[in-house]
Design a protein that fits this description.
CATH class: Alpha Beta
Structural class: alpha/beta
Helix content: 25-40%
CATH architecture: Alpha-Beta Complex
Largest sheet: 9 strands, mixed
Number of domains: 1
CATH superfamily: Spore Coat Polysaccharide Biosynthesis Protein SpsA, Chain A
Order of helices and strands: EEEHEHEHEEHEEEHHEHHHH
Distance between the termini: 20 Å
Length: 298
């Protein structure tokens, strides 16, 4: 569907941004603002409710912009199911992942589309990200992997909310709906598709990834269970290497469990990232603050 900007100039959307949400609280508004802040306006935004009980669904329905489509069936189905539904509903040639509690850099879509325009259809593009806390403050840098990996090693190929690829690629490679991968459907997809897909990560941080101050051990445990299964399914055929992968995942579960029980989980989360030079951190924070001040069409 075309939409108009400026002097009644019709622009055909080229990328569908898909956000699934379930009781996202105050973060959803900021995530949506970051879509409106994109330096390219040729997008459509799919907002799929996953059985929220707060006022987030009413808020999304109050948004007055024809580029936005809201869907709700009142049920909790899980992110993996909603992702496949959004891909099926997408009307644009490209599809961008986005989570309801993160923030996109204004140049994200423009720069990633530039890469895909010069790539073959079997290409997935991601990027580095800034780590932010519960108050949207920049606290670290999450570098992206620049080397193609296959098998279980491919599980960490992307920061999943940074991913953008052709809609056709996502339709040919749907997210698994197996219950064990409810929390790590993205990791399973990278393990499964890495032999036949080109993975590209931009080193420029194009997402603000919310993780500090929002850690949930039950969610982490659910993710870890899925990764243990992935290690067995896609890991090395060597018994020693396979055992090492499984031991590593179980060790991390134990470590985060102890840290969470002592109120120090955020210490581990912060240590996974690199420090950001003060000047760069100030510039990145200014981007977040400018998005926060934007008004949405209601």
């Amino acid at each position: 569907m075309a939409f108009s900007i400026g002097m009644n100039l019709a622009v055909q959307p080229s990328v569908t941004v898909g956000i699934s949400f379930r009781n996202p609280g105050r973060y959803l508004e900021l995530a949506i603002k970051s879509v409106f802040a994109q330096t390219t306006p040729n997008w459509e935004l799919l907002l799929f409710d996953d059985g929220s009980s707060d006022d987030s669904l009413a808020f999304t329905r109050s948004l007055n912009d024809q580029r936005i489509k809201v869907s709700s069936d009142g049920k909790f189905r899980g992110l993996n199911v909603r992702l496949n539904q959004m891909v099926a509903a997408a009307s644009c040639p490209y599809f961008a992942r986005m989570d309801a509690d993160d923030i996109m850099h204004p140049d994200r879509i423009r720069l990633q589309l530039q890469v895909l325009a010069q790539s073959d259809p079997k290409t997935v593009v991601g990027s580095s990200a800034y780590s932010i806390d519960a108050e949207s403050k920049v606290v670290g840098l999450k570098p992206s992997s620049t080397r193609q990996r296959t098998g279980f090693a491919a599980a960490h190929s992307f920061h999943h909310p940074t991913v953008l690829a052709s809609t056709e690629w996502f339709r040919m490679n749907p997210y698994t709906e197996e219950i064990f991968f409810h929390r790590c459907q993205d990791a399973e997809l990278w393990c499964r598709t890495s032999p036949s897909t080109r993975f590209v990560n931009l080193t420029q941080p194009l997402l603000f990834y919310r993780e500090v101050g929002t850690f949930s051990f039950p969610n982490y445990l659910s993710t870890a269970v899925g990764k243990v299964i992935l290690a067995r399914r896609y890991g090395s055929k060597s018994p020693i290497s396979a055992a090492w992968s499984l031991t590593g995942e179980l060790a991390k579960v134990w470590l985060y469990g102890v840290a969470d029980s002592t109120g120090r989980a955020d210490v581990l989360v912060r240590r996974r990232n690199r420090p950001v030079p003060s000047v760069e951190a100030a510039e990145a924070q200014a981007v977040v603050d400018s998005i926060l001040r934007q008004a949405l069409p209601l």
